[in-house]
UniProtKB/TrEMBL annotation:
Keywords: Cell membrane, Glycosyltransferase, Membrane, Transferase. Transmembrane segments: none annotated. The keyword Iron does not apply. It is found in: Cell membrane. It holds the Pfam family Glycos_transf_2. InterPro entries: Glyco_trans_2-like, Nucleotide-diphossugar_trans, Trfase_2_rSAM/seldom_assoc. Its main location: membrane. Gene3D superfamilies: Spore Coat Polysaccharide Biosynthesis Protein SpsA, Chain A. This is TIGR04283 family arsenosugar biosynthesis glycosyltransferase. CDD domains: GT_2_like_a. Residues 6-124 form the Glycosyltransferase 2-like domain.
Amino acid sequence: MKPRLSIILPVLNEGECLGVALQALQVLRLDCELIVVDGGSTDLSLAMAPPLADKVVSSPRGRAKQMNAGADAAKADIFLFLHADTALPDGSVDLITKVIEDGWNWGRFDVQFDAPQPIFKLIAWMMNLRSRLSGIATGDQAIFLTRKAFEAVGGFPDIALMEDITLSSRLKKLGKPCCLRAKVTTSARRWQRHGILKTIVLMWRLRLTYFFGADAAVLAARYYPKKHQ
């Protein structure tokens, strides 16, 4: 039976959260396929994935490369790209299939953080508002789209960072995104580890410099933690 949805998780040294993430997705495997794409993990990520996924794909390192490899292996006509540290809301598959049936080519969820501090509620609100106004989605918001739309824009651009921003810009030419108000819950670990203000400034600086033509590989070196190098 053809799956309703292909859920694609790019991973690299995500052993600390991958097991929990995959366990939470098991109920969806009844009519969806779950694809883990490993970019060369040196921890336990690759070992824990096979029993909990329908497919485990090895790919060259790089989130764009990994997500494209997952799409190549997918059987469904709808793709959902999900980070390992992001959890879907209840009823997410039904929501996605309904908006696709209604004629949308692509979309994303609102986001919330798994930390209780009020500052994270503000950050999430700003992220969701910015996305709704700009029509640009980020990977943390669990981007979903049809296979047809994915192929029409050539998949994710093979760049080291901002692949989600660039994909969104290309998809906007096919139509605006469906911005679901249902919330995925993503980890606040990067913000907590590196400092909230410092992370906000870094993200805005990276986006601004990318907008003005900076090399994505140079920006990636500033963004990713050492475990991803």
